[in-house]
Amino acid sequence: MVIEKALIMSILKLTKNGPASPESINKDAKLPFDVASELLRKFQTDGMVYLCGDNVGADTGSRLKLAVRAVALGADIERVSDFLRWQEFEDIAAIALERNGYFVAKNVRFKHAGRRWELDIVGCRKPLVLCVDCKHWRHGVKPSALRKIAEAQVERARALADVLPSVTLKVECAKWNKAKFAPVILSLIPSSFKFYNNVPVVPVLQLQDFLIQLPLHVESLKYFVKEFNHL
């Protein structure tokens, strides 16, 4: 497990900006070449890396799987987070939502009640509007901190519901007659809390399962109903 963890950390580090050579990964991990080569082949079979010519690459989904695996093997969360681009975290969430039939808008910015607001991701699939806050946590979250995070996301979801429909804000749900706006917190790693005041806290690798089960449990979540008056 120590060997696997070392190799994963080197892959995350060296593929952050694109594919890297097996030699450079092996050198960084300080592993015997044959051991590293065997593990790389295993990772390729498991879909965690791919070959790009003579180099090793990992796409957004693969890098997140590698990151979560590294944490499970005991890697320092802060170091793992340093090797992930913020955009990767948002991208994997957007991909999961799109694959489940949601229209996705990222980095949604708007003004309401004299304030500027921003939502990392807004996913729309009738009648739901998921307002997602992507948290790139480097350590465990205390209940007091989670309370503030959840309350802030509730405010953002409410503000979005209040401001729509808006001619300047292009989100799919503005075309609907009625929508349910639900705040969601997305984390890199599992939290000790699955909900806070009915706001779901979803580990990114469990997002697919969450989306599949969501229609059955939406009534137990925090949400705001908005009816749109279209002229």
Q: What is the helix fraction of residues, given as a range?
A: 40-55%
Query: What is the beta-strand fraction?
Result: 15-25%
Largest β sheet strand count, sense and barrel closure = 7 strands, mixed
CATH architecture assignment of the largest domain = 3-Layer(aba) Sandwich
At the first level of CATH, what is the class of the largest domain?
A: Alpha Beta
Number of domains: 2
Mean model confidence by pLDDT: 88
Count the DSSP helices: 8
Shape: elongated
The parts where pLDDT drops under 50 for at least 5 residues are none
Total strands: 9
Give the helices and strands as they follow along the chain: HHHEEHHHEEEHEEEHE
Gap between N and C termini: 62 Å
State the secondary-structure class. Answer: alpha+beta
In angstroms, what is the radius of gyration? 20 Å
The CATH topology of the largest domain is what? Trna Endonuclease, Chain: A, domain 1
Overview of the molecule:
The protein is an alpha+beta fold and 231 residues long. It has 2 domains: 83 residues, Arc Repressor Mutant, subunit A, CATH 1.10.10; 141 residues, Trna Endonuclease, Chain: A, domain 1 (3-Layer(aba) Sandwich), CATH 3.40.1350.10. It is built from 8 helices and 9 strands. Strands 3, 4, 5, 6, 7, 8 and 9 form a 7-stranded mixed beta sheet that branches. A two-stranded antiparallel sheet has the order 1-2. α1 packs across α2. The mean pLDDT is 88.
